[in-house]
């Protein structure tokens, strides 16, 4: 049977009920009761769709639709199950439901791919628990395998160790879950755009070229306090006035520097440092750098993107190649060497991380058809 519009809509609504808020939107934080209930619901759906289903030691849910040649490396698709505080019902959840719907349609038509296809619902992508984005996938990649769960502190107190215990997961999760990605032939994540480009252009989906990197500087401007009435303007060292000058100057360049090319980040960084130097000399204040945070841009697989674009063309779906201006689990897979692609669905008014977050289900269904054809193509290679 084909991809089903009503079933996608129904499953999104069912997931939204886990953590729904009276004022609208959803709060479904990793390792909470709401999260674990949503995970159990998805696990049942996976089993009913002909998949094997298990929760790995750190809390990622993985459904496995065994292929005709299971010895081959697998194709994986999915997204994150957690939300931000008072978030929406599409961010993350849609990518899981989309991948699940692909497998449901295959089971109904009796199709079994050459390669095994896995559906993943990742935990703790939104960094609301430990202040680290894409935590569940990073654990699978082995980034934390030398640490103990007591050393990873929860933002509200306690530690990962307590979260694991509450969820019935092993204390050795950071080691046990570090299986790596060598068993994957490709990863494809369907996600809402979280911006307005696709909607403004009247397009149905995006084929993501890269996930942008970003620069963040944390500065302190040190001025000098003195009598406001008796201190002449030429003798003033007003930190706030200098900060206003910096803010307006940075606004001309960018509020936060994000780019798909690290060379652009470096160029803007140089301009901002020059601005800070000029402001300090002009105002007589001292500017100190408290923190410097840089995340490199991550290009996605050109070969996977071409499969996505070809699939969209064959489905008669309008699309454009575009970068992702937000981070995703996909960047962890890509940075680890897994051929990775992303499919974007338009966000209504570009809204995300809000109860107003939404996407048109007609566009969603068309994008899921593109995902289905993409996964089928990759799984038959």
Could you explain the architecture of this structure?
The chain has 381 residues and is α/β, with parallel strands linked by helices. It is 38% helix and 20% strand. It contains twelve helices and twelve strands. The chain has helices spanning 5-16, 33-48, 93-109, 135-140, 160-166, 173-176, 197-201, 239-253, 262-283, 302-314, 329-335, 361-379, and strands spanning 52-55, 61-65, 74-80, 117-122, 184-192, 205-211, 213-222, 257-259, 286-295, 298-299, 319-324, 340-345. Strands 1, 2, 3, 4, 5, 6, 10, 11 and 12 form a nine-stranded mixed β-sheet that branches. A three-stranded antiparallel β-sheet has the order 8-7-9. The longest helix has 22 residues, at 262-283. It is globular and about 85 Å long. The chain starts with a helix and ends with a helix. The mean pLDDT is 93.
The Rg value, from CA coordinates, equals 23 Å
Number of strands: 12
What is the succession of H and E elements?
Answer: HHEEEHEHHHEHEEHEHEEHEHEH
What's the number of helices? 12
Morphology call: globular
Which residue ranges are poorly predicted, with pLDDT under 50 across at least 5 consecutive positions?
A: none
Mean pLDDT across every amino acid position: 93
Query: Sheet with the most strands?
Result: 9 strands, mixed
- How many angstroms separate the termini? 23 Å
Strand share of the residues? 15-25%
- Output the structural class: alpha/beta
Share of helix, binned:
25-40%
